[in-house]
Please model this.
Amino acid sequence: MKNNFLSAFGAFICISILGYFNSYQEENLWLIAPFGASMVLAMAVHESPLAHPKNILFGHIFSALSGVLIYSLIGISYISIGLGVGLAIFVMMVTKTVHPPAGANPIIAIMGAKGIGFVLMPVATGASFIVLFAIIYNKLLKRKYFTFKDWSRLPDSK
Model:
């Protein structure tokens, strides 16, 4: 029960901080819905390869790039949304950065007609914040989250 509370509390703190930063912007610059799902992985199943910092950061970035690319090529349609998500999955699998919450980024990018700036802010900036928070928080709790030697031992996504 203590672990459940600590996981929920960590997610509360991280998302609240991102929400606080976001409250000072006219546009949604710090917070996107997939970050809530990323927190579930980073806090509740922190030993999962899907919660690894590499997966959180690059999964979000590659997925957002997939959506921006597809939108710039063919605009908004049911086909472009499907292609965006499909491309994101393909790229995450090829790069071994699968992070399920990031699969929503192409939908946001395409339906929101986002440009390359979306990849930097909120995606890369917010994902970086989540990763740094998760490393520090899990370290303070003495949880096994990740070590730099783990970067090379991620499971293959064949």
Summary: The chain has one domain: 2-145. The chain has a mean pLDDT of 91. The CA atoms of residues 47 and 145 lie 5 Å apart.
